[in-house]
Design goal:
Layout (H helix, E strand, L loop, with lengths): L7 H11 L9 H21 L3 H16 L3 H7 L2 H15 L21 E3 L1 E3 L9 E10 L9 E6 L19 E5 L5 E7 L4 E2 L5 H8 L5 E2 L2 E7 L6 E6 L23 E3 L2 H6 L6 E5 L2 E3 L20
Parallel strand pairs: 1-5, 2-6, 3-12, 3-13
Antiparallel strand pairs: 3-6, 4-5, 4-9, 7-8, 9-10, 11-12
Helix pairs in contact: 1-2
This protein binds fe (iii) ion (FE).
Fe (iii) ion (FE) binds next to strand 9.
Length: 309
């Protein structure tokens, strides 16, 4: 069929009617958004001459992805989660809030309720024989003043790229903790070096990315929420330098400011001092968080999280 079979005016009238714009009731914000999305969808179908088979393949794809619980991978995989971050960055910049640690995507694998530790914690349960990772740093405000009693929530994958509560069973909350900073805003943890990971082989998201000539791999990383009363919630990650996919993340999560150096410690005295019996990796990373400002766009994102089970 040729493209552009339908008059633009008719497209816009149909979208408006389908979104209930001619009706009094309903949620005005929802109606506005639906009107725009439907209008853009109708227009895309007509411009690109999307066939009925193609259209229903798309509907089937979304349904199957939802059923397989993959929408949390689809959203970052097609850069929408990163795009939302870019908008929030710019909104903050315009509100005079630039300067703190940059945000990046949350991803779908946060689980609330991790054990809380004061000042320092060990994240791994000892069952993973991976390289020991020691990470520490300080949470400060934008003026460089330490933020005591801040919450540093951390979660990451094991050496096989798997998270507790997802994939092969691990002990509950393995590689997940909430660490409260000390009086100087410092936190510290011992864990094991995470591996990068890919979307499950044969998953709907992997199939889509393959069909677009893309891969479905993430570089190794560690996720963080950093929060404190009166401060803006920070959602971010650090990437592990040297990973093959460091700047080629399928989820668009890599940011240059979030690639701290990894220091390999092999000096016997330093190993002993750390209470270890083998060389380890050390990362220092300080977080800068901004004080809350009335009217600034919210940084706490309400989204569905997987339950701890
Ligand atoms: Fe992750």
């Amino acid at each position: 069929m040729p493209a552009n079979l339908i008059d633009k005016k008719h497209i816009s009238e149909l979208a408006a009617k389908a979104a209930g714009l001619d009706m009094k009731g309903g949620n005005p914000r929802l109606k506005t958004i639906m009107n725009r999305l439907l209008s853009d969808l109708f227009q895309a179908i007509d411009d690109l001459d999307i066939s009925m088979d193609e259209f229903w393949a798309g509907v089937g794809y979304l349904g199957a992805s939802a059923q397989a619980n993959e929408l949390g991978l689809l959203v970052p995989g097609i850069a929408v989660e990163h795009f939302l971050d870019l908008r929030l960055d710019e909104a903050e910049r315009r509100a005079g809030l630039a300067g703190g640690t940059v945000r990046t995507i949350e991803g779908p694998l946060y689980v609330a309720g991790a054990p809380v530790a004061k000042h320092e914690a060990r994240l791994d349960d000892g069952s993973d024989d991976g390289e020991v990772l020691i990470m520490d740093g300080q949470v400060r405000d934008l003026q460089g003043k330490p933020v005591p009693h801040a919450k540093v929530e951390v979660w990451h994958a094991n050496t096989h790229g798997n998270y507790s509560f997802f994939g092969p069973p691990q002990t509950p909350f393995n590689l997940r903790r909430t660490i409260e900073t000390d009086a100087e805003g410092r936190y510290k943890f011992r864990s094991i070096m995470p591996s990068g990971y890919g979307c499950p082989p044969g998953s709907h998201i992997e199939n889509l990315l393959t069909d677009m000539g893309r891969h479905a791999q993430r570089p190794a990383h560690v996720h963080f929420f950093v929060s404190a009363p009166g401060f803006r919630h920070l959602t971010t990650q650090i990437n592990i330098d040297g990973d093959k996919y460091l700047r080629d993340d399928f989820a668009f999560g890599t940011r240059e400011e979030l690639i701290p150096p990894v220091i390999r410690v092999s000096d016997a005295a330093a190993i002993h001092e750390a209470g270890l019996d083998k060389p380890y990796a050390y990362i220092k990373f300080d977080f800068a968080i901004a004080k809350e400002v009335p009217g600034a766009p919210a940084t706490v994102v309400h989204r569905e999280h997987a339950p701890a089970h």
